Amino acid sequence: MTSRSYRASLRTRLSVLCSPIRLTLGLASIAWFVVVTALYLGRGNLADVLGPLSVIPLLAFTAWTVATDMRYRREDAAADDRGD
């Protein structure tokens, strides 16, 4: 493995998973969760759709992060197998 290996370097992993656009979208999904949850709790049972709606951006962001991590790990493993 090289020193810039995705699997071995925390710095490389953080630079990929904590890019500015990813951090912005992550914070936006948390803000969405807080606002929609507050609306849901404030309105009681009148807005039942707001509960599940509040977690959709968080789940999408988590799925995107996991998919990106898996792709980089797979590419890194393939490079190690080839001897790059």
Mean pLDDT score, rounded? Answer: 84
Q: What is the helix/strand order? A: HHH
Low-confidence stretches: none
- Which structural class matches the secondary elements? mainly alpha
Which percent range describes the beta-strand content?
under 5%
How many helical elements?
3
Shape annotation: elongated
Q: How many individual β-strands?
A: 0
Helix content: over 70%
Q: Roughly how many Å is the radius of gyration?
A: 18 Å
Largest sheet, in brief, is: none
Cα-to-Cα separation, first versus last residue: 8 Å
Search tags:
84 residues; mainly alpha; 77% helix
What's this, in brief?
With 84 residues, the protein is mainly α.
Description:
This protein has 84 residues and is mostly helical. The chain is 77% helix and 0% strand. It has 3 helices and no strands. It has helices at 10-17, 20-43, 50-82. Helix 2 (20-43) packs antiparallel against helix 3. The longest helix has 33 residues, at 50-82. The chain is elongated and about 60 Å long. The mean pLDDT is 84.
Write the layout of secondary structure elements.
Layout lengths: L9 H8 L2 H24 L6 H33 L2
Helix pairs in contact: 2-3
